[in-house]
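Changelog-adjacent note: as of this version, every example in the card shows the full chain rather than a window. The one below runs 180 residues end to end.
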Amino acid sequence: MKMKMKNSTKLVAIAIAAVATFFGTNVKAQDSNPWRLGIGLEAGAPTGNMHDYSSFELGGTARLQYGADKGLAWTLTSGYYNMFAKNVDLGNGTTIKGPDIGVVPVKLGIKAYFAPSFYFGAEAGAGFETNSGGSTKLILSPGLGWSNTSWDVGARYENFSGQGNNYGLAGLRIAYGFGL
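Full-length structure tokens:
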């Protein structure tokens, strides 16, 4: 199972790098272009049922953004989250580390600016668990953030629900963005 997850992680990382390279080579020097791409690092603390299994999440995301209006932008976000498993005490003096849980999120969202550089964000989508027998979860995610022409820093809560196992994630994202 670990080999399968490592291959999945590498595949997602390669895909994100390929998209970033493709768009990065086509960067235009126009400020009026409404399209932006941000490549971000994610870190967070699992909540709910997942907190019993993991205490740390780390991942990476790519976010395509379209500025529809001066204070409004549509977003499409995907990437990979890895929730590192805790050590489990088997009760006989032996502890083992369970397998990490991987999730590939695919989310559509909106960013509404309520002050210069400060925004409220909301995303909804699907989270595809990469473990064998993994399921698909509905993701709902409100957040707050700050951005300028190059950087985007945000805090959010993500709720993953479905198949009788619901959990959450309180996370931070820091991203470097550029116009396309």
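Structural remarks: The beta strands are 35-48, 54-69, 72-85, 87-89, 95-97, 101-115, 118-129, 136-147, 151-161, 167-179.
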